[in-house]
Specification:
Layout lengths: L1 H12 L4 H18 L9 E6 L13 H19 L17 H13 L10 H23 L7 H4 L17 H25 L18 H12 L3 H17 L3 H16 L8 H20 L5 H9 L6 H15 L15 E2 L13 E2 L4 H38 L2 H20 L9 H15 L13 E6 L3
Antiparallel strand pairs: 1-4, 2-3
Length: 472
């Protein structure tokens, strides 16, 4: 596929400077094909899991709802990764068509399942459920009765996809975890190739309206999946493509996502068993500090040095004006905001966004400011509690799975948490969740992540794991 993409680029770009870039794609594509090998399998490995929580389902038998959730997640990710024209991030009602894909996959799986009840929700699920229900209810009231123009329905509706894992009965199996990890690598390669080509002069379609840095979490997911699978050639190819994308547009988002991935990877590793949580907290506080410095009169020295080093136009003043406009709106009702019924945008103050009219409304380029606009500090606490709880739960599960020797499940949980946190970190400086494609993707990633559960979850769950390996 990558080789074919490069050849097409060569044909289109013959006689232009894009031929060189297309040739690079061909070469890198050949490397990927040469390195593309299935993950090594045990010669005759049988993984038996016996637990009261899983009976009477036979061990390692895929639950149709787990298969459906996996298919919904991967299909949605693939569509968003391949969307260079911004259809899944547009502001028209057509964007809601994307939700048909995961909903249809889940309904099809539900029809094949005899599941009659849902699992007990985790603390993160409870925070998410309250936040999503209040947010959607308030947004619908604003849209239907108050004349709200930029209603937050597009933000809160996809959040319910994050609760679909409660329908899944069976734990993630080792074989399926490895399969999903390979699929995530391939989806990331699709994203990288299309993103690089779409920014070149060889691209035959209209200039992309969907900035690749808004979907930078794909790179974090793909690199983690390839690194944990020890596929060095694919890691090298991904890094090469990422370097090209960075040179095409050296946004600070790439750096933030890279740092988030490294910190989350460390926090879920064996070495990070003691200090990983503290490192995550320091990283989060550091992001808040940089943002606060930008709002309060200027610019952090880190941001200033970065823009100077990469010779990129400094847009700090634009972001600062938008953030100040949001701050002024929040000050009118800091505790509960608009009760989720108002706009999640702000006025185009002094026409800082020059390609928009003075009366246009612009997102403040910070999802947490949007949360404060909609739900005040009440909403921010709910959403923040969801994020923190999700991290705590997954890190604890990773440690238990590591003790059980469940390597594929550990790797998948780490990869998905890295992707989840990449969006959470990028949202501090970019409007992420208002893009229905990104919003649906991250909450499906959360749902799939919650299906990666250890055998021993507590004293009441007396489980036994037996691994039989025969020679031959």
């Amino acid at each position: 596929m990558l080789v074919l993409g490069g050849v097409v680029g060569l044909v289109i770009g013959l006689g232009s400077t894009a031929a060189t870039g297309a040739l690079l794609v061909v070469i890198l594509g050949v490397v990927v094909v040469a390195a593309w090998k299935p993950a090594p399998r045990a010669r005759a490995s049988i993984d038996l899991r016996v637990s009261p929580a899983t009976l009477p389902v036979p061990p390692d038998v895929d639950d149709p709802l787990l298969v459906g959730l996996g298919a919904a997640t991967l299909l949605t990710l693939l569509i968003v990764a391949a969307d260079t024209q911004g259809y899944t991030g547009a502001s028209t009602n057509k964007r809601y068509a994307l939700l048909v894909v995961p909903v249809f996959a889940l309904l099809l799986a539900a029809a094949r399942s005899n599941r009659s009840r849902v699992d007990s929700p985790t603390a993160a699920d409870r925070y998410l459920a309250v936040y999503a229900i209040l947010g959607l209810a308030g947004s619908l009231v604003g849209k239907l009765f108050l004349g709200t123009v930029d209603s937050a329905v597009v933000i809160f509706l996809p959040m319910f996809l994050g609760l679909t894992h409660l329908l899944v009965r069976e734990r993630m199996t080792a074989a399926r975890a490895a399969r999903y990890q390979r699929a995530l690598i391939r989806i990331t390669l699709v994203f990288l190739v299309l993103s690089v080509l779409s920014e070149s002069s060889a691209w035959p379609l209209a200039k992309p309206s969907y900035s690749p840095q808004e979907r930078a979490f794909f790179i974090a997911v793909g690199l983690a999946a390839a690194a944990f699978s020890r596929r060095r050639a694919i890691v090298a190819v991904m890094l090469a493509f990422t370097t090209i994308m960075f040179l095409q547009y050296p946004a600070a988002t790439w750096v933030i996502v890279a740092m988030s991935g490294l910190v989350t990877g460390f926090a879920t590793s064996r070495r990070g068993r003691r200090s990983g949580a503290g490192v995550l907290i320091v990283f989060a506080v550091g992001l808040l500090g940089i943002g606060f410095a930008q709002v309060q009169g200027g610019q952090s020295s880190i941001a200033k040095s970065y823009f100077s080093a990469v010779a990129k136009v400094d847009n700090t003043s634009t972001r600062r004006e938008l953030w100040k406009a949001a701050e002024q709106q929040i000050a009118k009702s800091p505790l509960v905001g608009s009760m989720f019924s108002g706009d999640f945008t702000v006025a185009n103050v002094n026409r800082v966004i020059t390609n928009q009219s003075a009366d246009a409304r612009i997102e403040p380029h910070n999802d947490y400011l949007e949360t404060l606009l909609l739900g005040g500090f009440f909403g921010l606490v709910l959403y923040g509690a969801f994020i923190v709880s999700a991290n705590v739960i997954v890190i604890r599960r990773v440690r238990l799975l590591t003790a059980e020797g469940a390597v594929p499940e550990v790797n998948l949980a780490r990869v998905l948490l890295i992707g989840f946190n990449a969006v959470v970190a990028g949202a501090a400086f970019n409007p992420e969740l208002s893009s229905i494609g990104i919003c649906a993707s991250v909450f499906l990633v959360y749902a799939l992540m919650m299906t990666v559960r250890p055998m021993t979850t507590g004293p009441a769950d007396r489980s036994l794991r037996v691994r039989v390996v025969t020679a031959g």
